[in-house]
Every structure is written in structure tokens, then in C-alpha cells.
UniProtKB/TrEMBL annotation:
GO terms for MF: RNA binding
Keyword RNA-binding: yes
Signal peptide segment: none
Name by which UniProt lists this protein: RNA-binding S4 domain-containing protein
Amino acid sequence: MAHPGAEPLDVVISDDSIRLGQFLKLAGLIDSGADAKSVIADGLVTVNGEVEHRRGRQLRRADVVVFDGRGARVADG
């Protein structure tokens, strides 16, 4: 579980947006695209506090993704 008040890790992306499945891998929250598909389908990933079931969901700057108690925030470089 995440520590209350713990800040999510900022993960810099090079474009204006990134798909959720790609971001999970980039942030190091999962190991592979296959893992992304299953954890998203199982309802184990939240975006901005809400469960997200779409692997292709477009994330933008400041969106926060949480999986397995660890969070990552979309940041721009």
C-alpha cells in the first residue's frame, strides 16, 4: 500500500500524451505490455484516483497513475 501523503514519482514524457499501458512500463510499475494488459483489465490501476480499464487511455501532464501502492505522475521535460 502507498504511504499516506507519499508523493508519486515524476516520470518525464517527450510527447504531449502517452498511453496508459506504455506509461506503466516507462514508470517501472510493471515489466511488460502483457502485464499492463492484465493488471488494467483486472481493475488494479487507477488514474487520478479512479479505476481505469482502458490500456489505451491517453495520459497528459499531471495525471497520476497508481498500481500496487506505487504512484507515478506524468511530467514534461
